[in-house]
Design brief:
The chain has about 90 residues and is mainly alpha-helical. Helices cover about 90% and strands about 0% of the residues.
């Protein structure tokens, strides 16, 4: 559920920043959500299995938190970096 809320917030943020860079708002919002989900999927497939294995053996609450929610932070971080980078390049043109 938190991942879906984060995806919606990323989409809204991309929608609001589209006008600054001269992009169509709806397609830019969809692009933001796709970037978020692809980054979250990459994290889930590449990083989570190893951390989940370690968490199941140690019962550390920190590792369990990472297994459950780190994909959200990674997806949002990638979306923020991409939006900032693309808007910076659009501003310089």
């Amino acid at each position: 559920m938190l991942g879906s809320i984060a995806a919606a917030l990323v989409g809204i943020w991309f929608f609001n920043t589209a006008a600054r860079s001269g992009r169509p708002a709806v397609s830019w919002a969809v692009s933001g959500v796709v970037v978020y989900f692809l980054a979250a999927l990459l994290w889930t497939l590449a990083i989570t299995p190893g951390v989940k294995d370690a968490a199941s053996h140690s019962q550390s609450t920190t590792l369990i938190f990472i297994v459950r929610y780190a994909y959200i932070g990674f997806g949002v971080s990638v979306a923020v970096l991409l939006n900032g980078w693309l808007n910076k390049s659009a501003d310089s043109e």
